Amino acid sequence: MTHLTRRAAYAALVIVSAAAPCGITFAQTPATPADPAAAFEKTEVMVPMRDGVKLHTTIYAPKNATGNLPILLTRTPYGIAAAGGSFATSYAELAEEGFIFAFQDIRGRFGSEGQFVMLRPPRDKRDTKAIDEGSDTYDTIEWMLKNVPRNNGRVGMLGVSYPGWLTVMAMLDPHPALKAVSPQASPASMFLGDDFHHNGAFRLSYGF
Q1: Which distant-in-sequence residues (6+ apart) come within 8 Å of 11 by Cβ?
Q2: Does residue 182 surpass a pLDDT of 80?
Q3: Count of domains forming the chain
Q4: What is d(CA 75, CA 137) in angstroms, rounded to the nearest whole number?
């Protein structure tokens, strides 16, 4: 670049810079997005079941809520350590609607006590000591109604895949406070066309 060209380029830069306040703007470093979970008060509890086993549960209550709110419960075998991150992804719209959110590790998984049984069958109701995913859900809802501040006595549930199946199990013998459910992609048949079995053929590698 010649000396004359450099002077011309510098002059052009000065002109552009001077013109910026008149309508030319420059990109700025974007601000760090706020953490949606920061709008909630998080509480970790061990909820007792009828047989004495305690289930690890996290409860997120909106900090600036006015009035009593319904509880939205999600039960999962996949762990709830990162549940707060869902307020920026899959629960982003729900987080703005005004719910108390509860997430629970099911029996025998992650922070919960007890023995995990894959797709635990429904209990024999003639056995007063029997438990299943439905009874664990019932006991959880009963505990939350009595111990979660500012709930309005109404509970909803949702889940996808295995959590969707857990939502279905909650409907077999539902707690009276369970008013709305949304089971999504629940495994309707583990024998035909699902992850573990395809037309009766067991996928050993998947099961392992």
Answers
A1: none
A2: yes
A3: 1
A4: 8
